[in-house]
Structures are given as structure tokens and as C-alpha cells.
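Sample entry was shown:
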Amino acid sequence: MKIQPVNFLFRVNNSKQDKSINYNYHISQPLKNDVFVSSVKSEGISFSGKTDKKKDNFKLNLSTDELKFRTDKNNFNYLKLLDKDAPEYQKLAPGDKEALKHLVKAAYYADIIALKQDNKYNLPFAKYLEEEIAKGSKDAELTKILFDGMKSVSGMDYASNYVNLVKGVNRPKGRGFFPQDLSAEEFQAILKSMLEENRDDEVRALLSQRTVVKRDSQGGLKAVDYTDEYKTEFSYIADELEEAAKTSTNKDFNSYLRAQALALRENDPYLDAKADMKWAKLQDTPLEITIVREGYEEEISDKVSENKELSEMLKKHNIVLNSKDSLGIRVGIVNKDGTDKIIKIKEFLPLLAENMPYKDSYEQNITSKEEDKQAMVDVDLVTLSGYVGAWNGGIVIAENLPNDDKLSVQLGGGRRNVYHRQIRNELCSKTSEHTKKKLDLILKPELHKYCTSEGEHYEVVGHENAHSLGPKNGTEALGKYRLIIEENKADMGAIAFLDLLTDKGFYTEEQKKEIITSFVVEGFLKAKPDMTQPHRVRSVMQTYYFMKEGAIKIDKDGLIDIDYDKFVPTARKMLTEIIEVQLSKDIKRGEKYVKDYFHWTNDMEKIAKKINSADNILNGTLVTPLADYLMEQN
């Protein structure tokens, strides 16, 4: 997955009884039974009924001055997705237009799930904000702008700062997947006790990607499957997918929609796998919907792998550790011209697989032309919701799914790359302003011509394809370092094969330099990240590594210089080291590898200050005019 800094707006509403919260959204129109979605005019959410007692004690954490600064038009970014007059939408067949309405509606239900998965205070705080706004509170209005973008009471901005909107409410380690009073140490002790009692199936459920962990009446822990925990939301999503399948013009797409709807209704991982396998094969479809499931957000599960005794017990009991899946939905229209350009690299994937370090030591998805399991599409975005639609220090510019921990991949299914045109184009449109000023401050003038939108795009293409290369099993043993190392591998895979692809005629020498230059510039950050940010940690590691090897230099004027001759060999060297670490399946080796290269140098700090002087964007939100229009039609 490739992350870039842009922004999103929360706009979905629902109603469901809960032990502690009974909430309803103010509406402009009903969706189904007791569930409602606000229109673009209502601009938000509203709750009524009894809420968590914590709600009565909510106090806004940010000062008026900071709220004004963060929401100022110069510091807050609006990213616009497809408009209702977009030619991409107008060209759709009537049946696909009708189907798109249902896909958009399905996507909006994911926002409720995301709020629950993120923090138990999200729902009551949303109600509190609306009440305060009704009383005339300007601070509440500004806070809500940030809340709608982050979809959380606590999120990260582009400068790697955690922004807590409520005094005394922080980002919990286990997010909403675990009881907030459960520590990593207590969780591990309970798992150990259960294993000693041979309660293997219960432990396996607690460590599943698709369960929420709760306390039981005896003081222990129980796992609740997503299909039960989010039964109402899943049911509504499934209904909309089935309705879309009635009018969509593509038979393969409709087959996937029905399979995915069934998987949402039943507690059966094999149904998920069946749906994933169908989705991964979709190539020539007018529409796109993805049920995004990725384990990036919570920290309690990964801590288990740091407990050597417990890890050995799990291995003995044949139990695999997985992080909890955060859920989101992407809806878009497949762009044929963009897809045709991207898909040309597909014929080279088996060649890249053959040239991976230690290729005979592991199984990977891409093995031969006859076993090509990589679909790829370029998509014009209509909406992003749930986990993938939240502003949290960045936004996804492309994804390669399903991830290796998913059953469909383990059963031999393929993967699929989806590229986000509007996010990519938004970043490119800023080149004339923010990026030009940034380049003047940090990059040698003669290299500016090589920093291009196309170079950045093809680096992302290489990154996503590289996720399908290398070991596909066992990397979960690297614990909290696995994501850092996997993202590091994907970046190095994008660079390490540039010479090979240039020799084969896929890239020109000029394009190769554009890809390298864009990669280097994006690798210098606005601030030092922490270990909870795998994408940014790996950027620091890579920049430090290339500087150490002399492929990146800082000249006497404090500007970045690039030794293009050293760049690809250096990437190849780092890629080899990464594969060695992944094959070791040793968390201590993974930890050492990350710590060896995660160094925030004085040069990085100086360049970070220059970047900040050129770009003040900290937070943002998503503008979805076509999605809003389609919601009004329902």
C-alpha cells in the first residue's frame, strides 16, 4: 500500500442499539428501516439518546487559536473526487449508473464500523459536538471539521503529530478492537493461561483478523466475529451489493458482488476467501468496489510476537497471530486508458519474480506467465469510506490486496492493484505551488526536471507490484516490524528493477531518472515519525540507507543531490537484506534491521524545516460531489 498526504470528510450516519449507546442520525432522507444518511446539505451527523457517561465530561482539547490555525484554508486541504457532471460518470450505461447508487450507499455504512473500530468515544463525542454547535459554540464547529476529517477523537496530522480533540481521551493501543482497559501484558497472560488449558480454538479466535475481543462474565476474554459485531451494518452493505448486482452490466462483477454479500452475512472465512478470489480476477469491469481489510491500526496483537515464550506456545499449538482488520470501502469507475497504461507492466512480472533475491527459498504469488495472478486497474474515485477514508497523517494512493495474511492468498488466489486517479492528480496539481517552492528549497536546480508526476506514479506502480513479489508466508513472525519491512520491500522492489525494465524497453533512461528523483523527494519528511507509522518509518530508513551508501548526498548549499549510477545497485542491496530478514522469521532480527537504519539525521531535520516552510497543510477532508448526488437519488 502506498500512502500520500490528503484528506477526507466524514458524512455517514446510522442507527443501532448498543449496551452503552443508543444513537440516531439527523436525516435528510431515510435509507432503510432505522438507518439514515445525511445529505450534503446536512453536512454531518447527529445522535440522540443515552450515551456514555464520559460524554458529560467532554472538554475540547485544542485552543481557539490552534483550531483556527488547523482549519484555516492555507493549512487545511480539501480533496475533490468525481463530480456529478464528470464524463466518466456520464458515459456509464444506465444499468451501471443505477448500480453505482447502491455501491455508494454500501460504502457509507463502513463509516459507522470505522468509528466503532477506532475509539469507543467517537459516537458520543459526535453527539456532544452537535449539541455544542446548536448552542452556538464556534470552537465546536471547528473541532467538528477536524473530527469529520480524521473520523476520530484522536488522529495524526501530516507533520506526524497526534491531534487529540478531547481532554483526557487519547488514541488507545487496541483501538476499538479490544477493551480499552486491557493491557498488552494482561492479554498475553490470558492467552498463555488458555493455551495451558488447551483452549486452542478460543485462542485462535482471539487472534483472528476478523474478531473483536471483549471481556466475558467470568473475567476472561471472548472473541466476537465481525459478522456478529457489525451484523446490522454488514447486512445493509450486503443488501446494497445484491441490489447493484441486479443492474450492473458486467457478469463477473455481479458474481463477485453476490459472493461478497454472502460473505458479509455468514461467519465463514472461506466465504471471504471465495469473494476475494473473484475480486482479485476482476480486470475489465466498468465499476469498482473494494471491501478493504488491512491490519495496520492496532498495537496489542503485534506485541504478542515480542513475548518469546508465548510465541513458542502458539507455534506449538499451530496458531497463527494476526492483527485485527480495519474496514473500509472504495467505490469508483474504472478508467480504461489509465488501466491500459498500467497493465503493460504485467507481462514483466514473471521476469521480476525470477530476479528476486533468494527466489528459490520461498513461495510467492507471481511464478510464471501461466500463473499470472495479478490484476490491476486505474480508478476514478467516487468515494472512500471507513478506514481508507480517514485523514490520519496521509491517504492511500494505491493498494495491492488481499494481503498475505488473507485465506484467499494462502489458498493460491491472486492479488489486485487499484490506483487512485483523483488522489494522484490532486498531488500533481499541487506541483505548481507547494512542490515547486519545496523543490527550490531542497533539491539541486538541475534535478528539478526529473521530479515529475509520471515519475511518482510509476514508482507507485512498481511499489504495488513488488508487494506480490517475495515471501508470501511467515512474515507475521516479525511482529510490529513486519509492516515496516514489507513496505520497505515494496519500495526497494520498485527501484531495484529499474535497470532491468529499462533494458527491456518498458522505461526510458529519462523515465528511470524521473522515478528515482520523485522517490527521493518523497522520502524526505516534514517531521520524524514514530514506530506506529510504518510507511514513514521506512521512508526514513531508506533515505538514511541511500545517504550512507552515497546514492543520496546533501551538497554544501544544503540541497539534495542524487548519484543515479549508484541508486539501483543500492536498492538491490537493500532489497536483498530485506528478504533475508523476512526469511529469518525472527522478530529480534527484524527489530535490529529497523533500528540499524531508522536514524533521523541533522540533514533530514534541516530539510524537514524547509519543507514545512513551503507547505503548511496539516489536516484535511474529502469532497465527494458525485457520491453526494447519488445519495440524494436513493
Q: What stands out?
A: The first strand starts at residue 2 and ends at 4. The mean pLDDT is 87.
